[in-house]
Design a protein that fits this description.
Elements: H1 2-18, H2 27-35, H3 47-60, H4 64-78, H5 85-93, E1 106-116, H6 122-127, E2 135-143, E3 149-156, H7 161-172, E4 176-180, H8 188-194, E5 198-199
Parallel strand pairs: 1-4, 4-5
Antiparallel strand pairs: 1-2, 2-3
Domain Transposase IS4-like: 107-211
GO molecular function, one term: transposase activity
InterPro entries: Tn903_transposase (IPR053172), Transposase_11 (IPR002559), Transposase_Tn903 (IPR053520)
């Protein structure tokens, strides 16, 4: 169906933008700008590369040591410098999120990812009888065109994606042309708000009846 074709194409576009390496062509200029006025040891890599690694880690949950391995391979191919996983960690920690306030209508993606509150493993927590601290969830709306953050909220692990989406989408609905998401956002609220412009695959247990939404079968 047209809905599934749009969703599949959105997944392809999402990966294309998340793994975009076009900044490499301006690498030297970006690095020079980063070090302009820098006191002490100069930065080895520009912010654009750190943002690239941060996107990969956020979406695919890649460990920092694995990011270092990927960067080493990229350095061999492109000739750029590599940095250690600890430096990647420090640079990512220093990133200040910039929210793009826009008045135009955009194709957007809504998604969420979980983060442990502690770095302690579950095994150690069980061994030493430490109370499990759980996860926090980051829910975010990003522009499909350039992967900039448009809105976000943080909840505990028990908050369902579709519930958090209500808060985000109610603020952004006038700026969204189409909204893309996974089956966690298959809800009547979203379909009633965006109609056929909500490109979301149905859940496995979705009903064949609309039950209050002309564009939903959930």
């Amino acid at each position: 169906t047209c809905r599934w074709e749009k969703y599949n194409e959105s997944l392809v576009d999402r990966i294309q933008y998340l793994t975009d390496l076009s900044f490499i062509k301006d690498y030297d200029t970006l690095l020079e700008e980063k070090n302009n006025g820098k006191i002490g040891h100069p930065y080895k890599v520009p912010d654009a590369l750190i943002m690239y690694l941060a996107r990969l880690r956020s979406i695919f949950n890649i460990p920092f040591r694995s990011l270092e391995g990927m960067l080493r391979s990229l350095a061999i191919i492109t000739g750029i410098k590599s940095i250690s996983y600890s430096e990647i960690f420090r640079r990512i920690r220093r990133i200040k999120p910039e929210i793009n306030n826009t008045n135009s209508k955009l194709d957007c993606i809504i998604d969420s990812t979980g983060y442990k509150i502690t770095i302690r493993g579950d095994y150690l927590g069980h061994k030493w009888h430490k109370k499990r601290k759980g996860w926090i969830k980051l829910h975010v709306i990003i522009s499909l065109k350039d992967v900039t953050v448009l809105s976000f909220t943080i909840t505990d692990e028990h908050t369902h994606d579709s519930k958090a989406a209500r808060k985000l989408l109610s603020k952004m609905k006038n700026n969204i042309l189409r909204i893309f998401g996974d089956k966690g956002y298959d809800s009547k609220y979203i379909y009633n708000m965006f109609g056929y412009n909500a490109v979301i695959p149905p859940r496995k247990n979705a009903s064949t009846k609309s039950r209050g939404s002309s564009t939903s079968s959930s």
